[in-house]
């Protein structure tokens, strides 16, 4: 089918702009003349008609080029697979063409290089390892700054923000008590049921009391409280500070000559240092209560028998093993939540991303530290 006959305008007998098939090779197109806005309409028709069958383009005949002409030229080169130099485009127009080509975001991407699955897996492990190392270094640096500000506040108590600390104690501690009691009681009941299922075969149902006591006094009491605060409080800290940063309130704090660590981080850290041990104690009592209910209702263990066995089992050493981890968990949760909040930048989407990161990192760190502590205390015979 013949191509549309679009006659280019002539100026003084010279063709202003044209795109014609080569005389010897029909797949080679020759672009000549002034590829500018005045000629775009008729050139666009020629490009539509000839581009699909083009195998090669000769652009050495172009004597003038603007952005509109460069856009048409870029469409032709996409079909032929050439670059501007390969098509013979004059060097004086090449910079303009490359700028238009980049702006169109239509550059030809290099062919993807195939990587075997084992290399992809190793690459992901390596990137994850580097990311963990960088995050740990940032957390240690943030811990150092916070300890420095805390020491300065201890030496100058007037710098401490008591009202803000009490507010965060209420928000992070008092408001979390009902949910913590519910969760701990249910977990205590589940532990008692599971223990009874196993011990019943040996006629040792009475040792369910020992199981529940050891589990909650040494591990579950402080762990459940820390997990609840890692999911609830760490995200709240990150979102609060992140939104303050988006509203430029932190810049205003610095403009007033105040330190954001003293104003925002220390009250939250001190609040968690006070509330987490208290919440761990409440969680321990709630878990023991759950085990007590199951033992009395389902295992035919009398209340006096449960309390006598509990008194024989529980010791101060087991209680200290559990409670000594509470301040460590409080520091980790508070610092990660505040640090991720201060790293927020840009948009509200950044707040969501860093909030998710704060929760994941807090939970991960709490579980890792609890596992390390459990192994350590077991190895030293506590």
Mean pLDDT score: 84
Q: Sheet bearing the most strands, described?
A: 3 strands, mixed
Using the alpha-carbon principal axes, give the shape: elongated
Strand content: 5-15%
The SSE order reads EEEEHEHHHHHHHHHHHH
What's the alpha carbon Rg, rounded to whole Å? 36 Å
Number of H/I helices: 13
What structural class is derived from the secondary structure elements?
mainly alpha
Low-confidence stretches: 1-14
Strand order of the largest sheet: 3-4-5
**How far is the N terminus from the C terminus?**
92 Å
Give the helix level as a range of percent.
55-70%
Based on DSSP secondary structure assignment, what is the total number of beta strands?
A: 5
Short description:
The chain has helices at residues 40-50, 67-80, 91-103, 117-155, 162-172, 177-199, 208-246, 249-255, 260-298, 303-313, 316-323, 326-342, 348-379, and strands spanning 10-11, 14-15, 17-21, 28-35, 56-65. It is mainly alpha-helical and 382 residues long. Helix 1 runs parallel beside helix 2 (67-80) and helix 5 runs parallel beside helix 9 (260-298).
